[in-house]
């Protein structure tokens, strides 16, 4: 295994469907401009309630990616 140096960024994704979908949306969007994404960690999960129903999931994640040479 090669030695790696990682950089981390914090992202918040949102979804009307689920917390998993919110994570997937955040990662998919980040992948458009960040390369070598390697891992993520869920930092916080919260949501928006309207009329007694969950309307949006909001999930904050830390994403790590390998720095390029």
Helix content: 10-25%
Strand runs, count: 3
Content of β-strand: over 45%
Strand order of the largest sheet: 1-3-2
Helical stretch tally? 1
Helix-and-strand structural type: alpha+beta
Distance between the termini: 16 Å
Mean pLDDT: 94
Rg (CA only): 14 Å
Which consecutive residue ranges, at least 5 long each, have pLDDT under 50?
none
Q: Main beta sheet: strand number and arrangement?
A: 3 strands, antiparallel
Order of helix and strand elements from N to C terminus = EHEE
Shape: elongated
Describe the 3D structure.
- With 69 residues, the chain is an alpha+beta fold.
- The chain contains 1 helix and 3 strands.
- The chain has one helix at residues 19-30; strands spanning 6-15, 37-50, 53-66.
- Strand 2 (37-50) and strand 3 (53-66) form a beta hairpin.
- The longest helix has 12 residues, at 19-30.
């Amino acid at each position: 295994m090669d030695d790696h140096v990682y950089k981390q960024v914090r992202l918040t994704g949102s979804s009307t469907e689920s917390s998993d979908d919110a994570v997937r949306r955040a990662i998919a969007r980040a992948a458009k401009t960040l390369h070598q994404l390697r891992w993520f960690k869920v930092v916080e999960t919260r949501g928006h309630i309207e009329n007694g129903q969950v309307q949006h999931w909001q999930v904050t994640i830390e994403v790590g990616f390998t720095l390029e040479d």
